Amino acid sequence: MGSTADKVKGTANEAMGKAKQGVGEATDSDKLKGEGAMQEVKGKGQKTVGEAKEATKETIDRAAAAAKRGAD
């Protein structure tokens, strides 16, 4: 999965997790609150993975460009 897809899925999971927590609060459901919290954390993790992939790609691209300039 690409960095953008990871970040989009992460954002969606965060939003759904927050929504579940809100419904859990409104209905006094510990189960929904717990599921929501777990889904929100999962989303944050997915976004972090996407950001790390993007940073790694940018670093590799810069290194490749620098190597090419040095070879010329």
Order of helices and strands: HH
Question: Shape from CA axes?
Answer: rod-shaped
Give the helix level as a range of percent. Answer: over 70%
Low-confidence stretches: none
Please, could you describe this protein's structure?
With 72 residues, the protein is mostly helical. It is 93% helix and 0% strand. 17% of the residues are buried.
List the SSEs and their pairings.
Blueprint (H helix, E strand, L loop, with lengths): L2 H25 L2 H42 L1
Helix pairs in contact: 1-2
Task: Give a short summary of the structure.
This protein has about 70 residues and is mostly helical.
Q: Which tags fit this structure?
A:
single chain; 72 residues; mainly alpha; 2 helices; rod-shaped
